[in-house]
Amino acid sequence: MAFYSILLLKTIIMKNPKLLDRKVLYDHFFRVEEFKFAAENSEETLNRYLVERPDATAILLYNEDRYAIVLVQQFRVAALGKDDPPNLWEIPAGIIEPGEVPSETIIRETYEETGYQISNPAFINQCYASPGTFSEKFFLYYAQVNDRDRKNMGGGNDDENEHLKVVEIPVKTLYSMMDEGDIMDAKSLVALYWFRSRHSNG
Question: What predicted TM-score, i.e. pTM, was given to this entire model?
Answer without folding.
Answer: 0.87
